[in-house]
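Our working data are protein records whose layout never changes between entries. The record below serves as our worked example for the rest of this section:
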Amino acid sequence: MKILVIGASGTVGQGIVNELSRDNQVIRVGKTRGDYQVDLTSEESVRALFAQTGNVDAVISATGGVHFGPLSEMTSEQFNSGLQDKLLGQVRLVLIGKEFVNPGGSFTLTTGILAQQPIRTGVNATAVNTALEGFVFAAANELSGLRINAVSPTVLTEALDSYGPFFPGFESAPASRVALAYRRSVDGVETGKVYRVW
């Protein structure tokens, strides 16, 4: 299969590329690195990406930023940053990309454990991840001939040095194990599912 991996240079993205490139043609996409570059907050940039890659069999998004900070100090602008980046960025990828995914193909988006298990300073992340899961659940009913799923990982083992203090008591998962959920989404038959790797 010809698979587009957006966020390919990130920790999760590298795990996905390592897993799927064994038996697929993987196109690596990043904001500043990779075979192609894209800014998911820009409709023009997303359209330009698909114009360059042409049709694909699967699209994987392993990217998206949210705002972390205390709710007592949060501004609507800060909250909106996560909506524009991780939420609408991935939604935009589907809305535009559905015309470029071959029949029987799939989208796999990325949410996160905070949709179900909030942490201090993570209000924006919880709201965004929960909204993404709702989008996947509903969009699966209307994407004629295409599948859509999401992967919801816990904190990554490789990222514990940076993010561990924000996730006290959480078990981590290595990127290689998280990548198997993306494999399951791409190679499987299900749609509208959230694969939780906790």
Q: What stands out?
A: The mean pLDDT is 97.
